[in-house]
Amino acid sequence: MGEIQRIGILTSGGDCAGLNAAIRAVVHRAVGTYGWEVYGISKSTQGLLQRPPAAHNLGLEDTYRLLVSGGTILGTTNKGNPFAFPMADGTVKDRSEDIIEGYHQLGLDALIGIGGDGSLAILRRIATLGGINLVAIPKTIDNDLGSTERSIGFDTAVNIATEALDRLHFTAASHSRVMILEVMGRDAGHIAISAGIAGGADIILIPEVPYSLEAIYQHIRTLQERGRNFALVIVAEAVCNELGEKITQTHAFSQCRLGGVGQYLADNISASVGAETRVTVLGHVQRGGIPSPLDRLIATAFGVAAVDLIAEGKFDRMVGWQHRQVVSVPIESAIAHYQAVDLEGTLVKTARAMGICLGDG
Ligand code: F6P
Questions:
Q1: What's domain 6-152+289-322's architecture?
Q2: Which residue numbers are catalytic?
């Protein structure tokens, strides 16, 4: 291919803290070092469906304050799969060709996609069909992407969940209550296990470890016998009820999302243990706000490395974090290896060694 002159960047899927820091780094490296143009595409691939495509040139002057700002200046979406795009008349249509056309209308030589596993799978499929030079940057508070130890947004989410436990600790002790904190994470328990250990939870429930309500009751009773007047429980949103069913809520536009397991636990615990129980659902607080220093650092390193991959002509790759270094891996392998909590890993072992109940006895 010819020399790179203009690249596009988009954010896809749920937002998280640190996306703007990555955009900032991409602009700095691409514009400042290589002298390329960078086009920020609006609302993920949806910007490429508009005519003219919704995108604007990002210069160094646009990067002020991006390091510390939450969300994404480009906008994003986690709905509207382009291969089954919902049309106004209620039908669905494959609009991948329109996206490819939008990319070419912008005169882009390469595209940086910042996303989680679902978004990256879709972007890769489009890139393969349309001959788009794609490089990916991993982001997700769920931290469930393969081939990278960390994704942008995870550290901030863990910090927020830990702070929530720190705060709940005191009010729990003051009122002699069982406090339950429900956190996000999609199908993985990374946020819950990390924040649970860091925030001193007594019980950590993650989807990877099957639990019994009886084991939870027993642990709370043991704490009470030892003189503790409160207990802190953190539960990941994908933890099922005892019948093995996921607990979900349906929002507007028929969007079904995980949520409600905290209340399920509270109802059972208060009925069986006789303890006053309250639930805090942390929700999107975990995704918003100022990125942690670690997320800013990783996002910056990822942004620089992604631009360097383009400069080296290495496409269809995702930057990742392994053993204190930025690496690059095929996007295909990153999305093929879902990263659940390792049951033999350090965090699970540490939790057990600290006497934290994981719900399995
Ligand atoms: O994947 C990120 C995530 O925040 C999950 O942890 C959560 O289940 C989901 O997105 C929430 O999605 P929405 O923003 O559509 O409510």
A1: 3-Layer(aba) Sandwich (3.40)
A2: 142
Tens-place pLDDT, residues 114-123: 999 999 999 9
Determine if ligand 1 sits within 6 Å of the CB of residue 139: no
- pTM over 0.90? The answer is yes
Q: Does the Cβ of 262 fall within 6 Å of ligand 1?
A: no
The CA 282 to ligand 1 mean position distance, Å, reads 12
Tell me the two tokens of residue 195. Answer: 């924040």
Report residue 79 as tokens.
């709905």
Structural domain boundaries in the chain: 6-152+289-322, 156-286+343-353
Fold of the domain built from segment(s) 156-286+343-353: Rossmann fold (3.40.50)
HSE-CB at 84 with a 13 A cutoff on CA atoms is 1
Are domains 6-152+289-322 and 156-286+343-353 of this chain identical in fold?
yes
Long-range contacts of 156-159 (CB under 8 A, 24+ apart): 156/16, 156/17, 156/18, 156/286, 156/289, 156/290, 156/291, 156/292, 156/295, 157/16, 157/17, 157/183, 157/184, 157/191, 157/286, 157/287, 158/191, 158/194, 158/195, 158/198, 159/292
For 326-355, how does the pLDDT look when each residue is reduced to its tens digit (9 = 90+)? Answer: 999 999 999 999 999 999 999 999 999 999
